[in-house]
Design a protein that fits this description.
Layout: H1 2-29, E1 36-42, H2 48-58, E2 61-67, H3 70-79, E3 86-87, H4 91-99, E4 103-104, E5 133-145, E6 170-173, H5 176-186, H6 196-207, E7 213-217, H7 221-226, E8 232-236, H8 237-246, E9 251-253, E10 261-269, H9 275-286, H10 288-298, H11 305-308, H12 313-316, H13 325-328, H14 339-355
Helix pairs in contact: 5-6, 5-14, 6-14
Bound molecules: pentane-1,5-diamine (N2P).
């Protein structure tokens, strides 16, 4: 009987020791949220092969979800109930999330590939010191157009969009800042203007654009413009580059009155469950070879200088998508206008959308 008790105690001891060793190993790997990583990114914004490679390299399973506007992403993360480990907001949204305590600091010692980012894209005003965010893609907002469908016309100014010949020919990206910003810029105002009279003037002007607006659309804007379903689009530069690679007749211009330059960075929301995997993912995406493949796949401009050096000259040398300092100096970054003013921009945008139906 004694022997049996001893054997029983030995078995329990071994089991406890094994449980202890596994828990130490697990906590060293830090995968407290299970071996998964939940990524929340814009639609059409990653080469899916890179996700598969990351999974293979790390053994972490990626759960991937997409959004189509900063506003949708912000609402979802702020309302809770999600477990995103990574999200990819733009500049002003990063500043807002920081202010609302929705982000966790990023441990730079776990991101050695940060050294590949061009210093021009680091330490920007929406996240001084890159405490909470790491550059992913950047670009501008402008007009993509098909000269053949508009009688050989080229575009230089936002105001040309109001040409009555363009009836039902314009697709607009479904974004509040982009559309209201375009209205303000066309009047010579800043796209961060908060003066109520200027905003109402922009709203009235946008309402006069509605006969020319065919639709406000998401990622399908690329397919529609490349397929010549409309002649002109208000788009993000990377979408224009994708469209032009599909249909070389089209061209892209950033209007002379000025426009928006934006930066989309990776962040770790406070909903994160797997910090080691989140850092590993950021570092993986910053590897120059991975970042170059990603840029080639999605068509957007990379802030990774060593990735840029790997891209073919026809991409890296294209001034439309890698604009020079002269053009950049005319562009503005969206400011975080504060909760109330951002809500007001959204309202004005919704009213415009109702009006264009
Ligand atoms: C990609 C969307 C890019 C977002 N489909 C520009 N901030």
């Amino acid at each position: 009987m004694k022997q049996l008790v001893r054997a029983f105690i030995a078995v329990i001891a071994i089991a406890l020791a094994l449980m202890y060793v596994t828990s130490v190993l697990n906590s060293e790997q830090g995968y407290s949220g299970g071996n998964t990583l939940t990524v929340y990114n814009w639609g059409d914004y990653i080469d899916p092969e890179l996700i598969a490679e990351f999974e293979q390299e790390t053994g972490v399973k990626v759960i991937y979800q997409t959004f189509d506007s900063n506003e949708a992403m912000l609402t979802k993360i702020a309302q809770g109930g999600t477990t995103f480990d990574i999200a990819v907001p733009s500049d002003y949204a990063i500043s807002k999330m920081r202010e609302e305590g929705l982000l966790l600091p990023i441990d730079h010692s776990q991101i050695p590939n940060l050294s590949h980012i061009d210093p021009r894209f680091m330490d920007l005003s929406f996240d001084p010191g890159n405490v909470y965010s790491v550059p992913y893609f950047w670009g501008t907002v402008g007009i993509v157009y098909n000269p053949e469908l508009v009688g050989g016309k080229t575009f230089r100014s936002w105001n040309e969009l109001w040409d009555p010949d363009l009836r039902n020919q314009i697709l607009l990206v479904d974004g509040a800042r982009e559309v209201i910003g375009m209205g303000l810029n066309s009047l010579g105002y800043s796209l961060n203007d908060t003066n109520e009279e200027h905003l109402q003037e922009a709203k009235r002007k946008l309402e006069r654009l509605t006969p020319n607006v065919k639709a406000l659309v998401g990622d399908e804007i690329k397919m529609l413009l490349a397929g010549e379903e409309a002649a002109v689009g208000l788009v993000w530069s990377g979408d224009a580059s994708e469209i032009i690679s599909e249909n070389e007749k089209l061209d892209y211009v950033v209007p002379e009155e000025g426009s928006n330059v934006w930066f989309d960075n990776m962040v770790i929301p406070k909903t994160a469950r797997n910090l080691p995997a989140a850092h590993a993912f950021i570092n993986f995406m910053l590897d120059p070879e991975h970042a170059a493949r990603n840029a080639e796949y999605v068509g957007y401009s990379t802030p990774n200088k060593d990735a840029l050096a790997l891209l073919p000259e026809e991409i890296s040398g294209d001034k439309r998508f890698y604009p020079d300092e002269e053009l950049l100096s005319k562009l503005e970054v969206y400011d975080n206008l504060g909760k109330r003013m951002l809500a007001h921009y959204n309202e004005l945008f919704l009213e415009f959308k109702m009006h264009s139906k």
